[in-house]
């Protein structure tokens, strides 16, 4: 019942009495049913957690004109959105942090300073209305945080970094943290005197997060686990939390080996992960035959990583991203999807028995297109959940959209083993070798959702010397670009579109001009982001060129040798000649339209009653990658194929003013028959391996260069099957196998709707690691066996 008010002059001391009275004057049958409660003018000084923690649905609470000075820390009320504390005895807003969903707050006429108002805005990321007025200081708070974060890094690196050592205890880390905070509050003077308390609060918060991130991998394990024998085709994962509680799980990958490290979040932060290979069983023991990786003729070698201590940096509030929605097959349905990056799920066209990975089909397939001879086995080694909303370790609804390996600044053209991922309002950098989340950036605006990321390497002045430094760009729903300095944990610049903001679907840096950032939305804009200067990383950015795109842009490729730009759009593939020496201020139209083979185009060609030209729509190009100079890989959505073709040949075919060019692929690769869209393809230019995910959690791996060699020798033209099909690592519970077989068709349909969709896949330059990101808030790291 809304705005319920109790009878006057009642005493709030006995839990049963309080509960009975609240139920009486609200008319609700249980406390769980109470959504709005008015306790104004009741001379209340405190609230009883035993009662209020049961009000899990409470949305609005009026406590105005009382004697409240704070709240018990275990009050609950996680869904509280509106809180009125007008005219109370508050001296601090610290206890309000337990209400992360607050959108409206009134703290007027309390014993608070202006600094407390800033603290409230900073600690409550969803707060929109404060004291009856719109919150208009959010941007000021964010700018202040960015500036102070740079100073925090500077003090840490100069005074405390050298004190880190392996096996530090909690007490040692806490002592280090206290010294760090004390030095920050002493040395850093920032902002007006009226905001000193806010500055110190922000410094303390940033320092605590920074220490957690810097020391998580150094913490001493709490408990040594005994070695437990497991069958040799399984691996036991021991997950230990701060309380010493251990969860044991054996995972069978279905490829002759097992998952290495599974990373989950918990409230305490650090989780001790240990993987143990079992002792060899007796010769007389009969073990089940290990499954082989699909596309690999031999069982993968059992490679066991060392135990890992994995920590996920502390997070703040995150936005609940849009869930992937179901849609119907067809270009029109897909192109009209309201959300730029919503994955459209549809029914699979074929059963698994008809797919490329089935054993019988592999046996019958010729060596040249099965590629078993040159296939490389990969095994999953880390499974991470690091983009959770509200720090929820069980969050399986957040989409992780993109992943990109970090370039090696010391070896141009190569990557490191670190990979960036983006999903929700979070960007992470993960070490593929250890599975540790090295860096995490979280946008302060709840409605931001990052769809795309891109790396570049800039020559920056560091201590008077030029040093190659990696910069990471991220963009998404808000239509703005964030420029991140991962080493400094700093968002040092934001680029806003000049026109009305539209979601940015893809970004890419120009290979020959590292400061040129190409952004794809409903049009294409090329920005010069400049080079950060000084300790505050100030930089100037400017728009170089605006290109008119015929459709919504989903993928971008810059080809420096040809001064050419390719874009995959929701209605076709288009190209622009880019004169890098003379940019025009006028919006430029495309100079080339590339018509790729597709089932829809073939059906249109043989349909005598086809649509008029004005009503035809081009194919959605949801995958675009540059294998090497002017050798392009592209994927038409829902078409079941990936095509490899020559841009040089396509451009040479253009005659006169006609823009359309129909190309014949050099090679075609067999892909899954699926209705899902926005499933990108990935590679590292020059490595020769192409990767792509599907809507069954699988990763398709193609060794294109070696495949081409064998195809040429054998006179084959394809389409070629993948070298390897990596199945999603799922737990194997033998006790549940029979129950799984007895599931009803209705249950199977529910599971089909809940399937894992791989949104994007990336591969390192040396092909040692493959990373896939999914619609279930999971990042999977695969390692070459």
From TrEMBL:
InterPro entries: Leu-rich_rpt (IPR001611), Leu-rich_rpt_typical-subtyp (IPR003591), LRR_dom_sf (IPR032675), LRR_LRWD1_dom (IPR056363), LRWD1 (IPR052489), WD40/YVTN_repeat-like_dom_sf (IPR015943), WD40_repeat_dom_sf (IPR036322), WD40_rpt (IPR001680). GO terms for biological process: chromatin organization; establishment of protein localization to chromatin. SUPFAM superfamilies: L domain-like, WD40 repeat-like. Residues 274-371, 717-755 are annotated as: Disordered. It holds the Pfam family WD_LRWD1. The keyword Acyltransferase does not apply. It is found in: Chromosome; Cytoplasm, Cytoskeleton, Microtubule organizing center, Centrosome; Nucleus. Residues 299-313 have a biased composition (Polar residues). Residues 376-783 form the Leucine-rich repeat and WD repeat-containing protein 1 WD domain. Residues 351-366, 741-755 have a biased composition (Basic and acidic residues). PANTHER family: LEUCINE-RICH REPEAT AND WD REPEAT-CONTAINING PROTEIN 1, OPTICIN. This is Leucine-rich repeat and WD repeat-containing protein 1.
């Amino acid at each position: 019942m809304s705005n319920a008010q109790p009878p006057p002059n009642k005493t709030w001391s006995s839990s049963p009495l309080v509960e009975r009275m609240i139920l009486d004057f609200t008319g609700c049958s249980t406390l769980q049913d109470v959504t709005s409660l008015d306790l104004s003018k009741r001379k209340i000084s405190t609230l009883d957690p035993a009662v209020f923690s049961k009000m899990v649905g409470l949305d609005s609470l009026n406590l105005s004109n009382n004697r409240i000075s704070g709240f018990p820390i275990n009050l609950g009320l996680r869904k509280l959105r509106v809180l009125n504390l007008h005219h109370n005895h508050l001296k601090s807003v610290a206890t309000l942090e337990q209400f992360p969903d607050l959108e409206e707050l009134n703290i007027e006429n309390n014993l608070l300073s202006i600094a407390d108002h800033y603290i409230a805005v900073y600690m409550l990321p969803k707060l929109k209305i404060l004291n009856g007025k719109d919150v208009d200081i959010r941007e000021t708070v964010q700018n202040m945080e960015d500036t102070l974060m740079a100073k925090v890094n500077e003090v840490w690196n100069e005074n405390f970094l050298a004190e880190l050592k392996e096996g530090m205890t909690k007490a040692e880390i806490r002592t280090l943290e206290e010294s760090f905070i004390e030095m920050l509050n002493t040395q850093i003077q920032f902002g007006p005197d009226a905001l000193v308390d806010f500055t110190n609060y922000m410094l303390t918060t940033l320092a605590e997060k920074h220490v957690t991130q810097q020391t998580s991998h150094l913490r001493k394990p709490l408990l040594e686990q005994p070695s437990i024998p497991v069958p040799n085709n399984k691996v036991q994962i021991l997950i230990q939390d701060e309380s010493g509680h251990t969860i044991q799980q054996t995972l069978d990958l279905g490829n002759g080996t097992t998952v290495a490290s599974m990373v989950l979040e918990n409230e305490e932060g650090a989780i001790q992960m240990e993987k143990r290979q079992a002792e060899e069983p007796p010769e007389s023991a009969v073990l089940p035959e290990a499954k082989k990786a699909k596309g690999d003729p031999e069982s993968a070698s059992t490679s066991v990583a060392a135990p890992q201590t994995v920590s996920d940096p502390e997070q703040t509030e995150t936005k609940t991203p849009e869930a992937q929605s179901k849609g119907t097959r067809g270009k029109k349905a897909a192109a009209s999807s309201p959300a730029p990056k919503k994955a459209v799920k549809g029914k699979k066209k074929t059963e698994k028995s008809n797919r490329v990975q089935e054993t019988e089909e592999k046996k019958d397939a010729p060596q040249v297109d099965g590629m078993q001879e040159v296939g490389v086995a990969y095994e999953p080694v880390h499974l991470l959940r690091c983009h959770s909303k509200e720090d929820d370790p069980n969050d399986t609804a957040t989409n992780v959209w993109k992943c990109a390996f970090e370039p090696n600044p010391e070896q141009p053209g190569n990557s490191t083993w670190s990979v960036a991922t983006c999903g929700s309002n979070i960007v992470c950098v993960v070490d593929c070798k250890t599975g540790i989340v090295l860096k995490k950036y979280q946008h302060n605006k709840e409605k931001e959702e990052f769809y795309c990321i891109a790396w570049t390497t800039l020559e920056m002045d560091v201590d008077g010397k030029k040093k190659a430094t990696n910069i990471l760009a991220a963009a998404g729903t808000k239509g703005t670009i964030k420029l991140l300095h991962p080493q400094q944990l700093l968002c040092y610049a934001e680029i806003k579109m000049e026109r009305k903001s539209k979601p940015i679907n893809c970004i890419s840096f120009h290979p020959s001009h590292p400061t040129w950032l190409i952004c794809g939305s409903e049009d294409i804009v090329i920005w010069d982001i400049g080079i950060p200067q000084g300790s505050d990383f100030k930089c100037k950015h400017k728009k170089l060129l605006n290109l008119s795109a015929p459709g919504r842009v989903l993928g971008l490729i810059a080809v420096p040798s040809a001064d050419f730009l390719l874009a995959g759009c929701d209605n076709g593939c288009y190209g622009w000649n880019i004169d890098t020496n003379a940019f025009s201020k006028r919006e430029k139209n495309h100079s080339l339209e590339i018509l790729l083979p597709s089932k829809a185009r073939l059906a249109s060609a043989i349909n005598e009653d086809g649509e008029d030209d004005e009503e035809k729509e081009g194919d959605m190009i949801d995958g675009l990658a540059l294998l090497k100079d002017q050798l392009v890989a592209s994927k038409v959505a829902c078409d079941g194929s990936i095509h490899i073709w020559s841009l040089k040949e396509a451009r040479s075919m253009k005659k006169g003013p006609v823009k359309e060019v129909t190309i014949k692929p050099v090679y075609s690769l067999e892909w899954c028959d699926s209705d899902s869209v926005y499933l990108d393809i990935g590679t590292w230019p020059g490595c020769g391996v192409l990767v792509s995910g599907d809507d069954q959690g699988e990763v398709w791996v193609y060794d294109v260069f070696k495949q081409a060699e064998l195809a040429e020798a054998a006179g084959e033209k394809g389409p070629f099957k993948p070298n390897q099909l990596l199945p999603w690592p799922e737990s194997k519970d033998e006790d549940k196998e029979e129950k799984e077989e007895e599931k009803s068709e209705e249950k199977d349909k529910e599971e089909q709707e809940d399937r894992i969709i791989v949104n994007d896949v990336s591969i390192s330059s040396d092909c040692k690691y493959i990373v896939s990101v999914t619609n279930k808030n999971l990042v999977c790291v695969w390692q070459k066996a």
